[in-house]
Amino acid sequence: MMTPRILPVTAALIATLAFSAMASAQLVPRAENGRVELLAYPPQGLESPRVVNRGETVWVEPVRPRYAVRLLEDGQPRVRPQRGALVPAGSLLFGLRVTGGYAYCPRIDYNAPVTRVQCFRDFNDDGVFDGGYLTRHSRTNTQFLANIVHALDRVVPIPYEAVEPSQALEATSQVVFDRMRNGEPSFTKYLDDERLETRFTCEPLSDQPDLCNLLGVTLRIEPVGDAIRITLIDSPEIRQLNVVMTNTALPTRN
Questions:
Q1: CA dist list (Å): 42 to 143, 171, 236, 248
Q2: Is the pTM of this model over 0.85?
Q3: Where are the beta strands (DSSP E) in the chain?
């Protein structure tokens, strides 16, 4: 089972590939889990104090990938070991953190019959992609997470340019009140339609014990029976969230 978490993770190395274009010709995994680094913007829905019942949304927030690029030429179709569709020039790709760098992938249509996409990598940081992966994405309902990137191989060079995160790569995330656990409220987080496995609590502030921090947002939370009353105290303009995929069944063959 592939599960997204907001946690660091070390992926097992199954197979490796040496790229002569890399500065140190290091070996890199041909298949691994990835981590997407997201920028989260201020919560919506907490403009005034409100009572939230179990299972209800506490707030929603726009999120965008921290790193993005634009292709300057077409990314050619891939035939083996599985098909990967052409990625046209002008496409915006988001950064997926992998061992030693980033792979850049188009948004994944998780409702499509085939959710596999090509991702590209620049091994010597010269503004040209020279390596590529395929994704596996089954049963994950978000456009910014691949269960696995695999089948790393060389590709026809593709020039690209870095761009600032924009609304063109924006998605919606939400925080939901899960339940009271041992007298403390517990929360879950969704990215698109995918519930992240990690459950969160609001950590009390050492200098203001009546306040707490939940995913970078400062709140006052007061029990109201089985519900809670939430008051927004403060939120940065931008917060960073790191979401990783964990999977114990990385492919041994591509």
A1: 21, 14, 7, 35
A2: no
A3: 3-5, 16-18, 27-29, 35-40, 50-52, 57-65, 68-71, 92-98, 101-106, 118-121, 128-136, 148-163, 171-181, 184-191, 194-201, 203-204, 212-214, 217-224, 227-234, 239-246
Per-residue tens of pLDDT for the chain, all 254 residues = 445 555 433 233 233 444 444 434 467 888 888 889 999 999 999 999 999 999 999 999 999 999 999 999 999 988 776 677 889 999 999 999 998 899 999 988 887 777 788 999 999 999 999 999 998 866 778 888 877 888 899 999 999 999 998 888 999 999 999 998 888 999 999 999 989 888 999 999 998 989 999 999 999 999 998 899 999 999 999 999 988 876 545 655 55
